[in-house]
Amino acid sequence: xxxxxxxxxxxxxxxxxxxxxxxxxxxxxxxxxxxxxxxxxxxxxxxxxxxxxxxxxxxxxxxxxxxxxxxxxxxxxxxxxxxxxxxxxxxxxxxxxxxxxxxxxxxxxxxxxxxxxxxxxxxxxxxxxxxxxxxxxxxxxxxxxxxxxxxxxxxxxxxxxxxxxxxxxxxxxxxxxxxxxxxxxxxxxxxxxxxxxxxxxxxxxxxxxxxxxxxxxxxxxxxxxxxxxxxxxxxxxxxxxxxxxxxxxxxxxxxxxxx
Length: 259
What we know:
Blueprint (H helix, E strand, L loop, with lengths): L1 E2 L35 H17 L3 E6 L5 E10 L5 E10 L1 H24 L1 E7 L4 E4 L1 H6 L8 E3 H5 L5 H14 L3 E6 L7 E10 L5 E10 L1 H27 L5 H5 L3
Antiparallel strand pairs: 1-4, 2-3, 3-4, 5-6, 5-10, 6-7, 8-9, 9-10
């Protein structure tokens, strides 16, 4: 607790982490007390205290104390019985663990976005009551949707597919059955590209559907390989049938195209 002229009125044991207080320091200006904090941080704290005293409002900020860690600092005006600012209450809360977790989360999110971009997976969110979709740039790219905004209407989203009604029905089934949605469908226009939509419901505190979160991925390669395999099976069946009817004999290498 500091007076109007930054003289020390009271301090607790934890304050010794920042300032080398002595039990006889009451009444001395805090600027005369030695500190392990960098000079730039001390100057910033004093500037903030002066503004609190002159303006009367509180100030809160994150303070990077280097090896000492991160702290949430707050300067609050202390008023006398008449309501005038009589001094400032300085408080510091150690948030090093929280900042470390935030940085780890930020790193994970960055790696996740990079992984999605490399795998060309688009993500989206939909709030049924609002009728609005939030989409990532990858979603727009996969669905060949012009523009660079991060929102679109649900109807516009459905029109990006060859059969919009199938998409609407899949969303309706998800809401009513509350089962995971998986839909493979064609992109609109003359495109022969297949995409897979997957989605799950998120619920509010009452257990009611509140949001649909999903992803979209181009699976044209997989679908093409599947069609080729099906065609090969059909070709094999025809050859086997012809051989049975006409006594045709073919070597395996000829059938498979190998020499």
